[in-house]
Amino acid sequence: MPTNFPLFPQQASAQAGQVDAIYFFMVAVTAFFALLIAGLIVFFSVRFRRRHRDEIGVPIHGSLALELLWTFVPFVIAMGMFGWGAKVFFDLYRVPAGAMEIFVVGKQWMWKVQHMGGQREINELHVPIGRPVKLIMGSEDVIHSFYIPAFRVKADVIPGRYNTLWFEATKPGTYHLFCAEYCGTKHSGMIGSVVAMEPAQYQAWLDGGPADGTPVDAGAKLFQDLACHTCHQQDSQGRGPVLTNLFGSRVQLQDGRTVVADEAYIRESIVNPQAMVKAGFQPLMPTFQGLVTEEQLLQLISYVRSLSDAGAAPGAGTAAPTQPQDRSTLENKR
Amino acid sequence: MEAPALNYLNNGHGAASWLLTKDHKRIALLYLASITAFFALGGFFAMMIRLELLTPAGDVTSPEMYNRMFTMHGVVMVFFFLIPSIPAVLGNFLIPIMIGAKDLAFPRINLLSWYIYVLGGLFTLVAALSGGVDTGWTFYTPYSTAAANSHVITAAVGIFITGFSSILTGLNFIVTIHRMRAPGMTWFRLPLFVWAHYATSLIMILGTPVIAITILMVAAERVLHLGIFDPALGGDPVLFQHLFWFYSHPAVYIMILPAMGVISEVVQAFSRKNIFGYSFIAFSSLAIAVIGFLVWGHHLFVAGQSTYAGLVFSVLSFMVAVPSAIKVFNWTATIYKGSVSLDSPMLYAFGFLGLFTIGGLTGLFLGAMGLDIHVHDTYFVVAHFHYIMVGGAIMGYLGGLHYWWPKISGRLYSEPWAKLSAVIVFVGFNLTFFPQFIAGYIGMPRRYHVYPPEFQVLNVLSSAGASVLAVGYVLPLIYLTYSIFAGAKSPADPWGAKGLEWEIPSPPPTENFGITPIVTHGTHQYAPSKEVGVV
Ligand SMILES: [Cu+2]
Ligand SMILES: [Cu+2]
């Protein structure tokens, strides 16, 4: 980590160059206009300085041609900037297929990370370079914001929903991880580091760390411990629906809506089951709000998701992709 | 013209003659005194912040105290200084005079609005003295409703109350501008200062109720645990952000439009030339007021707002930049072939032009969605809005105060000191806030009590600039006050400017005009006669 006096952030992700390109373009264009205005003002006030006490200016009331010119030109430039900015935004939010997923939970004042292989970290995030990484992020208390300046990515982490963020690290190194949304007393202490590693070293790191069971395993255990399995059975004998192949499918709700069963939907089904009752079922499911932590929720979700990854279970057959892509955030689909 | 023995200042003495006055000019002075006090308070909090940020470690204040400092700085400066500043002081004093009226339409309501402001201010003072608030001036939920352990309710009530003061002021201005114009003062002869206040008043009336309700909902959730914003109670935290910015983005225009009005007047007066493109300036104010209501979502690009909503907010944000650009070009063109004199108000106006241009242009960076992801909630944003709200609005306010001071006080201040302070403010301002653009792009998040050491150099520059800036703000307080007691008496029109306010004595008599004037042309017509077409 540089401790000297940088004037520009490091570029350490596939996206960083794209963001910097539009930044430099805007710096150039805006500097041109700022200098133009400043130059004209200085020039006019020297050239047309008052030469004797009673001098007055030449009455000029305007010029339609000029007005149109300086309405139209800024408008066109502004629209160009808008288009470019929107393009970069889409690229920064459209998660490429096959991205490696990692769970992140923010809480006052730390970041808790859970890898799919079971590794856990606090205020640190180890990632391989050259591979897209997708973070699925939730909050236990207030709003936080996950920010890696060297990667030029940021997304708010909001209680009650999941936001996602993806990046592809390109340069091995240790980078700042900041909380960017004010979250109380130790907001500025909610920082950490992102360690980008060569794939081989990353593999070594994965192997070396103590893995306390994958989130799927942990979720399966919770599913038993919380007695979910008493209602959600493998066959349609239980009082609740079969969860096999649920993830990614379209669910018909009692109130007529159809929603995609994504992470947010499953979360909502567990903490607030009455909000989205599946058509053809009684609203029997009790709420688990307060009984499970955000991390446990993510584990349950990954377990339910794994029931679709298998894809072999008969019955509830939809051919929906197991990991819906192209979601700017899960919220959009609701 | 020799000032008559009796003017609004010496017509009645004693506290009651001030505290119960219905004269818009005296009420303007009541506001002037109170917003100056709040400005000093807000400035004190700012100095504490800059002091803490001199070093990366948290060594001056505790984190709790630091969070209270930046919150109180924002609350005081936004709600108790910037929003009332130009409208309640200069607008109050000048609008009736500029349109040839004896007072505002509702003089009693005008006085009432000041009392409401003071009451709201007292709540805020109580909140500050009893320990402060630590939510940031943005009061984001669920932090403000479920987590914050400070005087949120007291501060919220203060803001709620003060809102009514701005609603009443806006209402008074609109009715006055519609109903009280002197014969011949047609809409297109109105001084641009009045147009700017008309647009501002629209925002005050339409926007302020929304923030009032939103703040009330925060209080309700905090006290009664109604689930509005807290997801644990079934609420939606992002809903708050929509409601908050629906007011608070337009509120930026409440602060900047009146300053733009001041600049239009000053640029004309010190170029001795009527404005270039009158109707483009007038209508761009209205366009800003209208489009400004439709861009609030640019504060939520990284909050998980739908991408398509984001696109709409982004394109509208770029569109609202165009009327501001039109104004800047027209002001510049006004100077062309003028008779330019660089008196202190004009220096402030040039300062405004420079700083507002930078502030406005950097706003484009934030409107570009892909770029905003990186700079959102960093010091880049802090720098941007200070360029608008301090560089723009306060420069405009000071420019206006210097321009009309001889009219308000009847005295002339020391011009060399005024020029010096204009330069000091400009230099100090840039030294304070320009480094913050760089710190922000490198990634320094805002509202950080401690920060990584590589940001220190930029922060030290900022803090040094803040001390220079403080000198620039204290100077006018001294020489303007001094002028009241020892300044030379001002003639009716010390600048050789044109406009109804310069035709009556300085200071004006209580009733402004002995006989209602009959207006035959627009303001700032310096060339002899010739009725003008409007472009
Ligand atoms: Cu935070
Ligand atoms: Cu805004």
Description:
The complex is a heterodimer of chains A (334) and B (535). Chain A is α+β, with helices and mostly antiparallel strands. Chain A folds into two domains: 9-39 and 64-212, Immunoglobulin-like (Sandwich); 215-333, Cytochrome c-like domain (Cytochrome Bc1 Complex, Chain D, domain 2, Orthogonal Bundle). Helix content of chain A is 34%, strand content 19%. Chain A has helices at 16-47, 64-93, 199-208, 215-225, 228-231, 263-271, 294-310, and strands at 100-107, 110-115, 120-122, 124-128, 133-139, 144-148, 153-157, 163-167, 173-179, 192-197, 250-252, 258-260. In chain A, strands 3-2-1-5-8 form a five-stranded mixed β-sheet, covered by helices on one side. In chain A, α1 packs antiparallel against α2, α4 crosses α7 (294-310) and α6 (263-271) packs across α7. Chain A is elongated. Chain A starts with 15 loop residues before the first helix and ends in a 24-residue tail after the last helix. By secondary structure, chain B is mainly alpha-helical. Chain B has one domain: Cytochrome C Oxidase, Chain A (Up-down Bundle), CATH 1.20.210. Helices cover 67% and strands 0% of the residues of chain B. Chain B has helices at 15-19, 24-52, 63-98, 107-129, 143-147, 152-179, 192-224, 237-269, 278-291, 307-335, 344-367, 369-375, 379-409, 415-442, 456-486. The longest helix of chain B is centred in the first third of the chain and has 36 residues, at 63-98. Residues 531-535 of chain B have low confidence and may be disordered. Chains A and B meet through α1, α2, β7 and β9 of A and α3, α5, α10, α11 and α12 of B. The complex binds copper (II) ion (2 copies). One copper (II) ion (CU) binds next to loops of chain B.
